[in-house]
Automatic annotation (TrEMBL):
Designated name of the protein: DNA invertase Pin-like site-specific DNA recombinase
Lineage: Bacteria, Bacillati, Bacillota, Bacilli, Bacillales
Domain Resolvase/invertase-type recombinase catalytic: 1-98
Keyword Heme found: no
Coiled-coil segments on the chain, per record: 11-59
SMART domains registered for this protein in UniProt: Resolvase (SM00857)
Keyword Thylakoid: no
One Pfam family hit: Resolvase
Length: 98
């Protein structure tokens, strides 16, 4: 049985956004799929985004990013997200070295 829950919210302010995201993440369970329209809607910066993705992976929660066509339920989606995460990590490391 598949159940779809659509949560649509417009939140202004960093603190309100963080609280709403945390509430959403707390509701997700193993095998759920979090769908976001754009990657920047999930995290405010690369570090936060990578932390959220890692948490989702540890908990067995899938991620779909619609504008990029990423779906971690597929091997190619996992690969693309891993490569993007690696580039983000490389970028952060290079910035720190400057």
């Amino acid at each position: 049985m598949v159940i779809f829950v659509l949560i649509f919210c417009i939140i202004s302010g960093v603190q309100s956004q963080k609280e709403a995201l945390n509430q959403l993440l707390d509701q997700l369970v193993k095998e759920d799929t979090l769908v976001v329209t754009r990657m920047d809607r999930l995290g405010r910066n690369t570090k936060q985004l990578l932390e959220i993705i890692e948490e989702l992976e540890k908990r067995g929660i899938h991620l779909m990013i619609l504008n990029l066509g990423i779906d971690t339920r597929t091997p190619s989606g996992k690969f693309i997200l891993t490569v993007m995460s690696a580039f983000s990590e490389l970028d952060r490391t290079m910035i720190k070295e400057k």
